[in-house]
Each structure stands twice: as C-alpha cells, then as structure tokens.
Amino acid sequence: MSQTTTSPALPARAADMAEPSRLGNRLFEGLTFVSAMMIGVLFLLVAYVLIDGARLAMSQYGWEFLTNTHWNPVTDNYGALPFIFGTVVTSAIALIIAVPLSIGTAIFLTDLAPLRLRQPLTSIIEMLAAVPSVIWGLWGLFVLLPWLHDYPYTWVSKHLSGIPLVAGPIQGAGACIMSAGIIVAIMILPIVTSVSREILRSVPDLQREAAYGLGATRWEVTRIAVLSYARRGLMGAAVLGLGRALGETMAVTMVVGNSPKINASLLQPGWTLASVIANQFGEAATDIQRSVLFEIGLVLVCVTILVNIGALLLIKSIDGPGSRRA
Amino acid sequence: MNKFLIAGLLGLLTLSAQAADITLTGSGSTFVKPAMDKWADAYDKKGTGVKVTYAGGGSGTGQKNVQDGTVDFAGSDGPLSDAALAIARSKDNNILHLPVVAGAVVIIYNVPGVTNLKLDGATIANIYLGKITKWNDPAIASQNPDDKLPDADISTVHRSDGSGTTFIFTDYLSNVSADWKKNVGKATTVEWPGTGVGQSGSAGVAGQVQKTVGGIGYVELIYAANNKISYADIKNANGKYVTASLDSVSDALGTATIPADFRFSFVNAPGDTSYPISGVTWLMVPQHSKDAAKGAKLVEFLKWIYNDADAKKMAHDLNYAPIPDAVVKRVLTTIDTIK
Predict the structure, then answer these.
(1) Complex ipTM over 0.85
(2) Which of A196, B16, B121, B197 could form a disulfide with A257 if both were Cys (CB 3.0 to 4.6 A apart)?
(3) Which residue out of A76, A283, A287, A290 would a mutagenesis test of the B interface target, given it has the greatest number of B Cβ atoms within 10 Å?
C-alpha cells in the first residue's frame, strides 16, 4: 500500500545521513587527557626543580649524605639521617595510633551506631579534616603538650626510666618524637576514618546477611564478612593517611623539639625532613646551605615514593574481596 | 573581541604610566622590619613620590637578594663574609654595609622563685655546651648567693630557624669560651651541642621557656621588653653585671672600633656600663646602582633615615638603640660614594 501523506525527506540509505557533531566529543576527550597529563607534568617539574637545586650538595656530599648524622652550618657538614629517622618514626607512631582508631570508628559508623547518630558523627569527623595544620600545631603546643608532659611523660620517666625506648630526662616540657607522632595521628584520623567508612559501606549487604544466616555473632560478622572483604581498601586508606603523615610540617615543627639527633628514646626531641626545610630555608645564606635543603626535599620525595611502593606491594599481596580466605 | 583587548591593554598602559612613583625594594632581616616599615610609611607620606617596600624573609634571603641584584637594598644582622664580598667585588658589585640600628640578645629563664639571675659568659657557654646541667651548680650559685636555686635540670632552648639573634649570641659565646669557638662556632644556625630543643622565632623560644620549668633561652631585647619577660644580668668584660637596655647597648657601641667597611662585631665590649651581648643590623646597599634614578632616590631615603629627627624618634620609640653620631657621620660619607 502506498503512503498518501507526505513524509519528510529522509535519505535513502543510512550511510548518507549527516555525521553527528564529533567536535564536542573530541574536545571532551582532549581536555580530560590534558588534565590527566598535567599531574604527571607537575610531578616532573617538581622533581626537576629539586634535582637542579640539590645538584651542588649532591656533588659535594655524595651518598654519605644519607648516613651522616651531623647538621653543622658552620663547618658545612650536613647529613640527612636524623631527619629520615624522625620522619619515619613519627609517621609510624601516627599510623599505629590512628589506623586502629579510624577503622574502629568506621565500623561503629557503618554497623553499630544508631541510625540517627550516623550523619552528625560523620559530619563532625569530616570537619576535623578541615582544621588547618597550624591550628593543630598551636593546640598541640598549648594544650596537648602540657598535659602529656604533666601526666604520661612524668609518670613514665619516674617509673619506666629503665626501658631505653622511653628513657631520658624530659626535654623542653614534652616536645619530643612521641608528641609529634600523637599530633600527626590526630591529624590523619579524619581522612583515614572517612575513606574507611566509604570502603566499609561498599561491602555488599549480602556478605553480612550470609554471615548472620550462618549464625555468626555481631563481632564475627564484622570480622569475617566485612573486614576481610574490605581488607585491601582499608590498607589503601591507611596508605593515604601515611602519605599525609610523611609530609606534615607545621604541626610537627611546633611539638617535635627541632633537634637533629637520633635517640633510641621516643621521649627525646627529634626533627623531620619537612620541618627542617620550613625552619631553615628563609635564612639559608650560602649556596651550599640552600642546596642541602633542596637535597633534603629530594630525600623526602624519595622516602615518600619508596614507602608508597612498599605499601602498594603489601596491598597487592593481600587477597581482594570475593576470595575464599576469610 | 580584538577591539576590547586593545582598548584594555591601552588602558592598563596609561594606568601604569601614571604610577610613575619610584619603588625601592628591600628584603632581609626581620629584626629591623618594624622600623623599616614605619620609615617607609612616613617617607611616602612626606610626598617624595618614593615607595619603599621591605619584605623581610630573614638575613640570609636579604643577603642573597642583594648579591643577585633582585632588590635595591637588604637588611642583615650578620655581615657578608670576606669570600662573598670578594666575589661581589669581582663582579663590580661592591656591597656597602651601613649600620642602621643596634640591638641586644637577652637570656630569659624560668626558675621558680628566682627573679634577678646573674650569669657570666663562661657559665652560659657551659650551660649550652651541656657541661652545666643543674640550676644549683656551683658556677651559677656562686654568682647568685642570695637566691635559692633548685636542684632541677637545665633545659636549654635555642632557635630552630636561622636567625641574626643566634648569630649575635654565638658570636658572644665564641668570644668568651675557647671551647665554644673550637667546637661550635658562630653562625645564624649552628649544631647545638648537648640536649635541648629548638623553636622557631623569638616567640617560639619565649613560649617554650615559659612553659618549661628550669628552661633557659635567648631572645631579642625588644621582644623581651615588649612582652615583659624577665631576663638575666650578664657580666661584661670589665667584670660588672649589666642589665640590657638601650643605654647599655649604646654604651657598648660607643666603645667599638669600627673599620672603614663597617663590618664589625662588638660583643663583650669594654666599659663599665656596656652590655656584652649586643649586635648591629646593617643595610646592605650596592655601591653601583644599576638604575641611576633609583640609586639617587635610594641615597635620599638613606640620608633621611640617618639625618631626620622624626626618623630617629620612630626608631627610638620602637626600642632600637641608635648608632652614635660619630659613626653616623662616617656612614653619610660612605653613602655619598653610591653612584
């Protein structure tokens, strides 16, 4: 039957149809590609500046810069070891304190808290992340440090002074590696809690229900169904916190004691890579002093990269969700 | 769109052409910054058409900037070393050192029940070397027979950032203690022997000492005076215990022998009323200005600082010790050599 109504002039073949506009697509792909590349380019620029600035110090000191323990601007004898020690130890203390607390908080927020409490508590924790680093440093200096000095440190130095890990007369009203570790722990709590909470929320309810169905108790459900499923994600959250801990500058410099020494005791002052740069760059008068501080920056970037690679390898070795191991 | 762009650019150009005021830039010592900011403000208000901006940033930054030529002048609590000056001269960029204000470093302490501590140089050096560790050590007790000194540990506090205050302090300690001179030396940052913590800025050191029972530290006189922190009387080269003040610093400066290039130190100065831990801040100015017009304006500004009664009063009100008139005459002669 032939059509009597007129139809719009449709092309006879599909191949004759006009091409849809590709410009929008191409522009979108191009822009996102450039944004992704920018991050790589920025990193390369930072690396270039650091290596260029550190050239003088690297040629003068070589590898022994990493094992030298002195920091003497008068005789130009510099070494990075006390700072590497300080950075690694404060970050380790911060992780040991913050990660269990954060995961515990995240479990509480996702599984155990009454429904009405969840959103307010989450908001409060996220507000902690918004507090600037310097404010934490001031709070640490004026509130935390005196309390730590008067109660825990004094008690420990009276009763446990035999143990090398906590030995020694308390210097500077409590400014020490331990205090810096505690402040950094408080600072990375919000971010690790927040990411852990997201990870735990993404565990499918099916896992929990299956565990309940098998007769598990609340803790067993959390341990077997939730935590082991989310293991990798939680480690990722811890690595995120570690990254922030390694670079923390202002809060640490106010409470760490700023003394470039390596001590077995955690209650003695120390110094970190980021803090020494912040303290000394403004007054670095000679070329070698400036170059040494650039080299410290380079060491910090390398330590951060190495620690992150180590953490990623560790995460890879843990089985992901859905594997049989419980 | 092109027309608007051109119009906008032309507008900007005319605007910038109208801002024909000359701007002099400086950077460096934060010790002299309060005075410099006040001088810059007053000089601008006089209607000279010269704007002076002083950025601070520390003596080290100032020294580097003036050697590189990125600023017109710098403030520094420590002079350029011979080596650095030789390099500058070889590039036809002799840097003149003009002493502008003097200040002192005072020793603050936190010992309950003690308000008027007396110390001498050797004792302070030994405290910071870690050789004297308790407040009731005979070396301290013998100088303070009327005070009851506790059997408490001494907690030393030093500057963790590079600072002219540290330079003056370590200069003094090198002068009074051969041990300090050999093992530590003088600089804006040193490797502090013994135990002790560092804090950033005079405010950091003062805060730390006030919180630490048994603490001892060093800060600028101006900072201690403005914040009403008590400090120790120090024994000077003539054996007298002197309290730091503008007068005792000026007395010390009056006895100093100042060479032609004005690079000198007057720690442990002779004289009964001289305060031993004093130092001067220099304005570092290139002798040959790259821009003749700017150079002329800079010379006028410098002469104003040294001659004008208002300028001198501003510095005095901010608690800076002035440079003696005889020295000022020599400085003005040197300023005339700037071309």
Answers:
(1) no
(2) B197
(3) A283
